[in-house]
Amino acid sequence: MRLLDLCLPNDMISPCTNFLCLQYHSVNENSHPYVCSHTTMATTNYTQQSQLRPPTKGFHCSESIEKKGIIPSIIFRCNLPPPNDNKTLQFNCREPSCGALEGEETAATLTDEDYAVDPNFFDSGYSMAGSTGFKVWTGSRLMIETLTWPQCEIDPERLVGIRRRLLGGAARVVELGAGVGVVGTYLAAVGATVLLTD
């Protein structure tokens, strides 16, 4: 199940008050019966509207394992929207994705032998929280689908306008907590000016 909550502003007083709050919840029925990822931007002045967003036709992701050295890499791939639909972005991750693949999309599965102790585990200041950036999360897929792949029959007019700016090269994006960088890199590939931070 894929739930998309759109929070749209009550008033459009200035460009500074315009925002889009996307809140994603996804339950991967194949492997994890719980919410795997939650991406949100919050503000105090909004009205909320909920709807289910079906999978996007033409958008595909996959992952595979590449073994070089002691720690295997997971290669996560996703295709770009038209007119670049013959191009694929590739991301090198340390762990398989969490809920980012759907249906028949190829997933990477690590065996017990594939797992190794993180070489930075014993460094001072190391935290397991830092390892959340080693994989692609459900929210990443939903963000790039929603922001770059139209579903005209259900997309609100405000979202269509944001998508037009992104695909037309008129958008400037700052991604906070980019992790692997799927969302920011994808938006840059379709024309936005992007600053990634983590």
Could you describe the 3D structure shown?
With 198 residues, the protein is α+β, with helices and mostly antiparallel strands. Helices cover 15% and strands 27% of the residues. A 4-stranded antiparallel β-sheet has the order 3-2-1-4, with helices on one face. A 3-stranded antiparallel β-sheet has the order 5-6-7, covered by helices on one side. It has a two-stranded parallel ribbon with strand order 8-9. Helix 3 links the parallel strand 8 and strand 9 (193-196). The two termini are 29 Å apart.
Structure keywords:
198 residues, alpha+beta, 4-stranded antiparallel beta sheet, 3-stranded antiparallel beta sheet, 3 helices, disordered N terminus
Task: Give the biggest beta sheet.
Answer: 4 strands, antiparallel
What general outline do the C-alpha atoms trace?
Answer: globular
The whole-number mean of residue pLDDT values reads 75
> Distance between the terminal alpha carbons, to the nearest Å?
29 Å
Query: What low-confidence regions span 5 or more consecutive residues with pLDDT below 50?
Result: 1-50
Number of helices, counting only DSSP H or I runs of 4 residues or more: 3
What share of residues is helical? 10-25%
The spatial strand order of the largest sheet comes to: 3-2-1-4
SSE sequence, one letter per element:
EEEEEEEHHEHE
Structural class: alpha+beta
Integer-rounded radius of gyration: 18 Å
In terms of DSSP E residues, the strand content is 25-35%
Total beta strands: 9
